[in-house]
Each structure stands twice: as C-alpha cells, then as structure tokens.
Amino acid sequence: MTEASTKTRILQEAARIFAEKGYEGASMQDLAQALGLSKAALYHHFRSKEEILYQISLLALSELLARGERALEERDPSRALLLFMEGHARYIEENHPFFVAMLQGLASLSPPHREETVRLRDRHEANLRRILERGMEEGVFRRVDVALAGRAVLSLLNWMIRWFRPGGPMRAEEVARAYWDLVLRGLQDGNL
C-alpha cells in the first residue's frame, strides 16, 4: 500500500470514528485498532489526532468551497442558489463522516488550525452571500439581510447531520430542493 493510500485510509476511518464517537471521545488507539495498525504507524503518517482532524476538515471544506464556486458560475440567481444547496447537501450525503467530523470538530482544533478552517468556511458562506446579493441586485430576490439569509440556508443544510442518513428514504438533493423551495418563496418579491 502506498503512503498516499494509507493516509487516505486513515483519514476515512478517522472521519467515521470521529463522526460516531465525537473527536474528544475517540482515541488514537481506537483508530489504530480499527485500521489494524500500531499507534506508532499512525504517528508515522500524522503527528497527532488533531492533525488528522485538521486534514479531514481541510478536505471537507475545500470540496464544499469548490461546489459553491461552481454554483456561483450560474448566472440565474435562483438556479445558482439551488445548485449551491444541492452541492452542499450532496457532499453531506456522499461524505457524511467527513462532514460530521469537520462540523463537530471545529471547536477542538487549536487556534492556528481553527483559523484556517474558519477562513475556508467563511469563503464558502461568502459564495452563498454573493448569490443572494446578485439575486437582490437583479430584482429576483427581495431585499433581506444577506448575512442572516445566508446563515439560515447553511443552518438548514448543516442541521441535516442530526437527522439525514445516507441510504435512507430521501436523497440529500431532494432535501435541498425542498429547502430551496421554502427559501426561494421567502426571498421572492411579493410584488412580482
């Protein structure tokens, strides 16, 4: 097994364990046992448990950011909002342990690592705000507090970690479309 594939396997298993037990409740011993490796082998690939969480967080946020940037390319603000929401929800479904570990583990990161992850998270939210602002400028959405609207959209999506289960009766994109419909009706100008 190559160094890269071993690291990938460690991150995948760590994300699963952190999502299941919580970052604070999981140990390097738990991870070593699940992987069939020694703790020394883990430390060969990652300096610490926090370094593993940090890498999981960077991977999750980088992918969310990329999906948000693709949505931003759509010129129609309503459609761009839908694409943003679907991309975010799809990531949750396809990478559930990574997303849960990142979202719940943020407070456990040291200040420098937290600062970098918050910077990526804020860029993702800024993309959403740009979509909302463009919709307002073009008269597609009514004027609302952009920060509050952006946080509401992300809260709807992020809260899915509490109840959504990949492989369950609904797909994440279906949830995103239902949320989009609710949000869109709230953003539409009643005078149109």
UniProtKB/TrEMBL annotation:
Coiled coil: none annotated. GO terms for molecular function: DNA-binding transcription factor activity; transcription cis-regulatory region binding. Transmembrane segments: none annotated. Keywords: DNA-binding, Transcription, Transcription regulation. Residues 4-64 form the HTH tetR-type domain. Residues 27-46 bind DNA. InterPro entries: DNA-bd_HTH_TetR-type_CS, Homeodomain-like_sf, HTH-type_TetR-like_transc_reg, HTH_TetR, KstR2_TetR_C, Tet_transcr_reg_TetR-rel_C_sf. It comes from the Bacteria. The keyword Transit peptide does not apply. Pfam families: TetR_C_24 (PF17932), TetR_N (PF00440). This is TetR family transcriptional regulator. The lineage of its organism: Bacteria, Thermotogati, Deinococcota, Deinococci, Thermales.
